[in-house]
């Protein structure tokens, strides 16, 4: 049996989908036999799907917790690349030491710096081609806070790391962009908010009850498993198997909470 699929990329933050339409997911639920949502729990709630989910499912979506932080992307000319290569070595991230003043207050809003160029090259190593492109660094703010970052904060940290004066670092900057990352890393998954979740099989995705008004929706995400790539894959795999099971057998392989 052939299952026809359509992928819709919904930008919850901007309120539009990839085709420029409103982010309302309800028309898709009504038009398609099944809709799979693979987005963080807070974004699911913003789509107005409460009437399609069970009370237990809504309890999970409303109570799982995510970290938040401010990130800032900085783009530099290639002259800075060789100095970064010496400092980072085989690493792509460097944690910054906390610098405290006399009052015990943290002076730096940056937790760690990520060098994006090696991540874009196969194997994580910096290739010769990488030396000829602009250099991209992402500064990650302190976890749990949406503190504003500014260019001077990163420039001061880079001066300590690579030895260039702040004035020279400033002259090498091509562009910067700040991103308030309100939904960041998962810190409280489903198992932390549900006392006795289904375990046979493991409850790794939310599946609408077959034959009810909830039938047309499946929700997947690492909040149903664990905050890791493996957790994401496990939930996505469970969602894919739930779709296949729905159209290939009438047996109930996936438990749906009351």
What does this structure look like?
By secondary structure, this protein is an alpha+beta fold. It has helices at 26-31, 41-45, 55-63, 81-88, 116-119, 151-162, 166-172, 229-248, and strands spanning 10-11, 16-17, 35-38, 65-66, 69-76, 93-95, 110-115, 135-141, 173-181, 186-188, 206-207, 217-220.
Search tags:
258 residues; alpha+beta; 5-stranded antiparallel β-sheet; 12 strands; elongated; disordered C terminus
What's the structural blueprint in terms of helices and strands?
Layout: E1 10-11, E2 16-17, H1 26-31, E3 35-38, H2 41-45, H3 55-63, E4 65-66, E5 69-76, H4 81-88, E6 93-95, E7 110-115, H5 116-119, E8 135-141, H6 151-162, H7 166-172, E9 173-181, E10 186-188, E11 206-207, E12 217-220, H8 229-248
Parallel strand pairs: 3-12
Antiparallel strand pairs: 1-2, 4-10, 5-8, 5-9, 6-7, 7-8, 11-12
Short description:
This protein has 258 residues and is an alpha+beta fold. It has eight helices and twelve strands.
What is the H/E order? EEHEHHEEHEEHEHHEEEEH
List segments where confidence is low: pLDDT < 50 over at least 5 consecutive residues.
12-22, 100-107, 122-132, 250-258
Mean pLDDT: 78
How widely separated are the two ends?
A: 30 Å
Structural class by secondary-structure content: alpha+beta
> Strand tally, please?
12
Estimate the helix proportion, in percent: 25-40%
Overall body shape: elongated
Largest sheet: 5 strands, antiparallel
Number of helices: 8
Q: Whole-number radius of gyration?
A: 22 Å
Q: Strands of the biggest beta sheet: in what spatial order?
A: 6-7-8-5-9
Q: Beta fraction of the residues? A: 15-25%
């Amino acid at each position: 049996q052939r299952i026809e699929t359509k992928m819709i990329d919904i930008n919850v933050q901007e309120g539009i989908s990839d085709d420029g339409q409103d982010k309302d997911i309800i028309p898709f639920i009504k038009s398609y036999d099944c809709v799979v949502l693979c987005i963080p729990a807070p974004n699911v709630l913003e789509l107005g799907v409460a009437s399609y989910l069970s009370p237990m499912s809504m309890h999970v979506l409303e109570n799982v917790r995510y970290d938040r932080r401010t990130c800032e992307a900085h783009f530099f000319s290639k002259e800075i690349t060789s100095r970064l290569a010496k400092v980072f070595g085989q690493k792509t991230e460097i944690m910054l030491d906390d610098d405290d003043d006399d009052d015990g207050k943290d002076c730096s809003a940056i937790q760690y710096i990520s060098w994006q160029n090696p991540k874009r090259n196969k194997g994580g190593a910096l290739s010769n081609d990488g030396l000829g492109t602009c250099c991209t660094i992402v500064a990650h703010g302190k976890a749990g806070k949406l503190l504003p970052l500014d260019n001077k904060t990163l420039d001061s940290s880079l001066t300590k790391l690579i030895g260039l004066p702040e004035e020279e670092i400033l002259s090498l900057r091509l562009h910067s962009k700040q991103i308030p990352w309100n939904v960041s890393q998962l810190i409280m998954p489903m198992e932390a908010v549900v006392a006795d979740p289904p375990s046979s099989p493991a409850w790794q995705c939310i599946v609408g009850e077959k034959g009810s008004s909830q039938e047309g929706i499946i929700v997947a995400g690492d909040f149903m498993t664990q905050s890791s790539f493996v957790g994401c894959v496990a939930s996505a795999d469970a969602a894919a198997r739930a779709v296949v099971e729905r159209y290939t057998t009438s047996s109930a392989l996936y438990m749906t909470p009351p």
